[in-house]
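Summary for the funding panel

The consortium committed to producing paired sequence-structure records for every protein in the target list. Below we show the first two records in order, beginning with the earlier of the two.
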Amino acid sequence: MPSSDILAIVGPTASGKTELGLTLAQKQNGEIISVDSRQIYRHLSVGTAKPHDTRGIAYHLIDFLDPDQRFSAADFVRLATEKLRDIRARGKTPILVGGTGFYFKALTQGLAPLPPADAGIRARLKKTAEDKGRLHLHRKLEKVDPVAARKVPANNIQRLIRALEVYELTGKPISEWHKEHRSRPSSIAPSSLKFIGIDRPREELVRRIEARCRTMMESGMIEETQTLLNQGYAETCPALTGLGYPRIVTHIKGTLSKEECLRLLIQDTRQYAKRQMTWFRHQLQVAWKK
């Protein structure tokens, strides 16, 4: 990729990344590339906070996969690189917007040479999660790779299974693979990205998170989840393992009241936002904007 700056808007969930990205795109003749591991899925719009009004700005890499399709960081790198080249070839300014930090890292630093997926291992681990619960799998990960276990929440079944799968295939924790992986030139040089981060005061961010969660519950997150389940998608499909949806599934099953579901959704989102900020501060060179 050319060495001139590519804008990248980062920050925790509910901080206002989409709004800032659209504003900058309007000013700079830009198009947006989403860097979000859940907005890629069709049919789930409320719980992933997909932009409803893009002000006529092209918004790429959202709403293009079925809920049961898997999508890796390598897939993101391939598609994002294609979009970056296409946008520039048309004389537009590409602006990366999102909160999936690992996608940014993969785009600029490449990926560790991990083994390919093993369908048999994945099926067995998935069955274990269904029979004994995700916490059981998470405890297994804690024993073999405590570093990864601290980074991978129990409800992220996709990453949980991948970490255990890598350990079974190689005998080495996935955290060690990443640690040993040296930064190397990838699709774009790290220096070509100009990171702008949104850092809102803690109290303000908490208010925004609470407001977003309440709006999601009131605007159809339960209904869109129920629709997918009615269509035959499993509760463990990739799209439904994202933030919030496992709580909604539990509510639909009748074991969690709506009020408790909302409380836990807010709690989970606040914890996720905290993890995002910690990651961005330690992994990327970001110019933070108050």
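The next record, for a separate protein in the list, is shown here:
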Amino acid sequence: MDTLEKTITRNILKYLNSLPGCRALKRPSGLFQGGEPDITACRYGRRIEIEVKRPGGKATPRQAATLEKWERAGAVVGVVHSVVETRTLIELNFP
């Protein structure tokens, strides 16, 4: 993950962890975590899985397939490029 993506991820984590009833962490990256979303969180008992990308970036097919599996299991999922996009994702799913 490059510096800009790390900065975006850090800011998203700060935002998520400031929300009532929310706990978020950066998923470790490595050989066996390929395709797993960057951020895993839970808010009021509901799982959230977020893939962070630089502006204009897209999820790889493997990442998209993993997010789809999480969504089918009931998680809130998204590919985001900023805290603003993350806030929108949260507001849409936790009115």
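Regarding this second record: Helices lie at 3-18, 61-72, 83-93. The mean pLDDT is 93.
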